[in-house]
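Hello Y.,

Per our agreement to keep a running log of every chain we model this quarter, I'm adding this entry. I've kept the format consistent with earlier entries: sequence first, then predicted structure.
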Amino acid sequence: MGDDDLRYRYDVEVVGLLASPAHRWDGRPDPALAGPVERTDRIEVRAGLGIVGDRYFGQPAHRDASVTVLATEGVEALAVELGSGPLDPLAARRNVVLRGAEVEALRGEPFSLDCGDGAVLLAGGRPANPCAWLDLALAADAHRGLRGRAGIRCAPRTDGVLQLGPAVLRSAVPLDPARAGDAVRPVPRPRHAAVQPPHSPGAGESR
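Predicted structure for the entry above:
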């Protein structure tokens, strides 16, 4: 897949990067385990493996979900809703935090990020659903409030470097930066009609 396939171009900003060598959140939320937020100004991405130095690098079970991407606008909208004051988006422990990108619209879609050292191609996958630890790491009710806007899990398709600062995002689908903070709610399942009991065919019916 090349730039011709990623026809939509957006100027965005990488405002946060994280590569964590170990799991921080395991089991039930515990203040003693929360600790400071890791952050870096540069990460190296490897195709099919993930982020160098990250806990999911080279893990077969996470091959298609080794890079997580989040829109900082979702965390900012949450802060307004909760009246909590500013919240650190990296406390959600997503690897890449963007400003100006409708990240949730990239579920299941290919896209690339270019911070000036060449494009890094990512395959957007399933949502990175929030967990109960966010009530401790961000703010009370953050677990519930970030549903539908906690970012997406991605598979890296090319090698490259991402760094803080301005970047270009290219996508195969159009995005609306004004909706970057909106939550994507699951489509309700249709209610099935009551199952009718089996009956014997009457006149004019056949099996």
